[in-house]
Amino acid sequence: MKRNYLKALEQAPNHKELPFPPGEFEARLTRIRAAMDEAGISTLFLTSPESLFYVSGFQGEWYQAQSGRAFAPTSGIAVHVDHDRTIHFETPSEAILTTIGTVSADIRIFPLEMRRNGIDFICRELEREGWLAGTVGLELYNYRPNPIVAERFSKGFAAAGAKVVDATDIVRQVRHIKSALEMKSMIEAAKIAEIGMAAARDAIQPGVMELEVFGEMIAAMTRAGGEFPGILPPVASGFRSNCLHPLASRKKIERGERIFVDVSGVYNRYHVNLARTFWLGEPPGEAVAMHNTSVEAFDIIEPLLRPGMPVLELLNAAKAHYDAHDLFDDAYWSGGYEMGIAFPPDWVGHFIYDLTHSGEDDVFLPMTAVNHECNFYAPGCTGMSATIDTILFHADHAEFACAFPRQLEALCV
């Protein structure tokens, strides 16, 4: 990594590819620092892909999450409560990517002799800055850093005089409220989700593998400018459709089978979740009746939607409908979770709601996004009646992000 590497690194600032303008990231940093001040945290060391993206725009294909011990996941971004700048620590391997794809102005690359484990370098640099003198927060409720690396960070920071605490929720809670630009990305993601769902529907034919449907769906979304979602989108047919989270397989779809598809459209890493159910051939009457009755809950919910809406108002309205039609006992789940920035292996956000733990004080705040799941085991072991939509709570109104039909659609009749 000498002459050619250095020449490319020198030219990298001329090839910026930012998902948002610098002012957007400045506003995010201001909100994070305010949350840190309220929590009594002086320095926050961020390591999760979602947090790194949120504060800088960094995104890559490899985060050393499940790699061998020689590739320790130690890169990250330090935020100080009293400074309007961050310190971005990266490996030499990602120096060019960091320069191209982030707003980070202070990028410190691990020395070559520490390129695979930068903890000592990070500790030394932060101690010199005086950023380890107070309480330091790590994202411990995360797969990155893993427990071993987290312990090493904790020991290194503590040796410099810091008190180390879990601060996972700082950025997660700040991210929950989205900016106008973030909501625009959600709207674009919704368009992409509908394109993917239409492609999946059109690919379903007798003898076609689930994986072929998956491939057509992903291809259509990428042609529309969509990015790869945080979860491998399931396509399940026949008896496999009794499971909500199977990977698409080499199973060939046959006539007389239910097929459900669960996808997220992605734009600037912002996800919009959409799931629909199809039937190849003529579906049984009781399967149609149950499915179409269950999705009527969305029509009941829609006029109630508004920013600041109590969570229990939505949940109780849906449950009352299910109870009136004797459906609730067969519910796989009735609830939802936050949608937004996500990287593999998950798109399930921080805010989760359902009747088991949502309380009277919980509300759907303005400028937030959640999905809502309407999933029921169908009669006769015919699979899951699965329908999922994303709700966008704007500043002054709320809406379902997608308009794809929810009724059980019969294909190739």
User: Largest beta sheet: what is the strand line-up?
Assistant: 4-3-2-1-5-6
Count of structural domains = 2
Report the structural category. Answer: alpha+beta
CA(first)-CA(last) distance: 61 Å
The total beta strand count reads 17
Count the DSSP helices.
12
Q: What does the average pLDDT come to?
A: 96
Brief digest:
The chain has twelve helices and 17 strands.
Describe the overall structure:
This protein is an alpha+beta fold and 413 residues long. The protein has 2 domains: 3-175, Creatine Amidinohydrolase, Chain A, domain 1 (3-Layer(aba) Sandwich), CATH 3.40.350; 177-411, Creatine Amidinohydrolase. It is built from 12 helices and 17 strands. It has a 6-stranded mixed sheet with strand order 4-3-2-1-5-6, sandwiched between helices. A 5-stranded antiparallel sheet has the order 12-11-14-15-16, with helices on both faces. β14 (368-377) and β15 form a beta hairpin. α2 (22-39) crosses α7 and α5 (119-129) runs parallel beside α6. The model has no long low-confidence stretch (mean pLDDT 96).
